[in-house]
Write a structure and sequence with these properties.
Layout lengths: L31 E5 L11 E7 L6 H15 L1 E13 L2 E12 L4 E11 L4 E9 L4 H12 L7 E2 L6 E2 L9 H8 L12
Antiparallel strand pairs: 1-2, 2-6, 3-4, 4-5, 5-6, 7-8
Helix pairs in contact: 1-3
């Protein structure tokens, strides 16, 4: 008689990669990352990473963004937040942040442009683009082109079947957002030098 699978847990995660499935450790959350690479015919063109995040345990979108930026500040040497501004992407609240920091043992200066979007599904998606000194204009143009195409399917209330609009509640100021969860360096203030 073949062994029973009754005692084996059913895989919780089944990505669409070559039939792969696995059981993540208890408490781990899924953070889907997809990288869109520029064509090889465009050397030096930026690539963009799309990441899906659970907003938990942050109580609000602003708190999530503040916590995420603070985690960069904790991990990267000479972190400097250069911009942190509200915007609307695909009809949803979003925050565009730009920072620079040192990364790696070779002390390479990196620049990052990242846009966080509060989706109608209650998750956060981010588009991130890392570029070197002098690459900001090209990265910004690529990101703006990509963001202009973003659309979200409407979310429906499961009980009533009513279509829910994306939240239009104004975001708090960066200072208010930072105080909601944890401190985030403000533009012009340097940390970890």
């Amino acid at each position: 008689m073949p062994p029973s699978n009754a005692s084996s847990p059913v895989p919780k995660h089944a990505p669409e990669i070559a039939g792969l499935s696995f059981q993540p450790p208890e408490g781990w959350s899924e953070q889907v990352v997809v990288i869109y690479a520029a064509p090889r015919s465009e050397p030096g063109a930026p690539s963009v990473a799309l990441t899906r995040w659970s907003r938990e345990p942050a109580p609000t979108f602003a708190a999530f963004v503040a916590r995420h930026l603070a985690s960069f500040a904790e991990r990267l040497a000479r972190f400097e937040l250069l911009a942190n501004e509200e915007m609307i992407v695909g009809g949803c609240r979003a925050v565009r942040a730009r920072f620079r920091a040192m990364r790696g043992d070779r002390a390479r200066l990196l620049h990052e442009l990242i846009v966080y979007i509060d989706t109608p599904q209650g998750e956060v998606v981010s588009f991130g683009c890392t570029f070197g000194p002098g690459g900001e204009a090209r990265a910004t143009a690529a990101m703006e082109k990509l963001l202009s195409t973003v659309h979200f399917r409407a979310k429906f209330d499961e009980d009533s079947g009513v279509r829910l609009a994306p939240s239009t509640t104004p975001l708090p100021t960066p200072r208010e957002a930072a105080s909601e969860w944890m401190p985030v360096p403000m533009p012009g203030k340097r940390r970890f030098q």
